[in-house]
Amino acid sequence: MKLLVNCKDCQAGIKLKYPVLDRAELARTMGDTIRLSCPQCGSKRTYGVNGVVARESKSISVLALALLLLGTGLIAYLLLSFLFVSSNPYFALLVGGLILVPSIVYVLLKKQERERVSRFNRYRVGV
Ligand SMILES: [Zn+2]
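Above: query sequence and zinc ion SMILES. Below: predicted holo structure tokens.
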């Protein structure tokens, strides 16, 4: 999850580098307003905590995808090698079932990230 504020002068997205779980925690650690300087136009302004928007982090998507591809590739490789060694169909079925594991991890990682983003965006700090 990454946190962004739109610059009041040039509308560029300013990234917040605070590892918080939700908006309440952001308000607790930073106060109700945050002073930020825009990396695009350099203007320094104060932003309300409620103006912060959460987006899904690209690095989580890349990590999840890498795990999916590597995991599936590795298991497919193992499966093919075992197929030559073992003639037991149940064994092949078991290894074949393993191929689902990276997909499940991928879905869970994406789901968790989406839930963190929506929880952050839903919750507003009282004014
Ligand atoms: Zn700006």
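The beta strands are 2-6, 13-16, 33-37, 44-48, 53-55.
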